[in-house]
Amino acid sequence: MKIMVALTGVVLCAGFMGLTGCGKSRENVTIAGSTAFQPFAEKLADQYMSTHPGVMITVQGGGSSMGIQSALSGAAEIGMADLVELPPEAASLKSLIVARDGIAVVVNPANKVSSLTYDQVRDVFSGKIKNWKDVGGSDYAIAVISREAGSGTRSSFEKILGGIKLAEDALVQDSNGTIRETVANDQNAIGYVSHGLINEKIKAVSVDGIECMEATIMKGEYRLVRPVFLMAKEGASPACQAFLEYVMSNEAQELLHQSGLIRAK
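User: That's the sequence. What structure does it adopt?
Assistant: C-alpha cells below.
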C-alpha cells in the first residue's frame, strides 16, 4: 500500500512538472486599466504565457484612472493608462511608454460626412453643432457618443481639443468597443475610438484633411494622438519586471504594430 501511494505521488508530480514544476505554483501578474489598450494587452499576455508556462497573467479593464489607482494600491501589479500625460499621483510609479495610439473620430459608414475640421469636432462633441446638415451631412440630429469620466481616451481627446465640455445629451459608454458598436448601429452617431480598433463596421473621418493612420501619426500630422503607459511600483516582482521587459522587446512591439498600434520605439 505504501509503495503504491509513493508511486502515485511520483506519477502525479511528473505529470505536472511540464506545467509548473512539482511543488511549485504559477506566478501571478495582474494588469488593470485602459480599456482601449486592454485587447492589445491580452494579446501580449497570451503570447508571453505561451512561452512562459510558469506565469499566469490576468488582464482587466476599468479605465486609465483605475489603472493608476490599482498600481498605487497594489490591487494590480501593472497599471495601464492611455493619457497625453500622467497625473501627479502617478509620479511614484515606474512608467514605460509601450506604444502610441491615434484617437479616430468615427461615424457610421452610411453617413456621407467623411471630413471635419478640428473646430467642427470640438463643436459637435460640446453640443454647439447639433445637426449633420451643419457639417455637410443630411438633416438629422447628431448622436454624440463618448467615454465615461476617468477614461484615458476621453481625457486625451478633450485635452487635445482644448478642454471641451461634453454635450449634456451625449450617450456615455464604458469602453472603446461599446462606442464602436453603438456607432456601427446608429447612422447618425459620432464617437471616437482607438486607431487600432477601427474596422469595417465604422468609418474614420479625416480631421483638417488628415486621416488617422500610421503614416500621419508618425509624421506628427494627425494631432489626436496619445501614448500608452504601463506602470508598476518600484521593486515589482521578478515576474512583473520580466513581462514589462518583454513588452519592450522587438517581438512584442511588432505584435502591437501588427495589431494596429504604433511602436514605442
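The radius of gyration is 22 Å.
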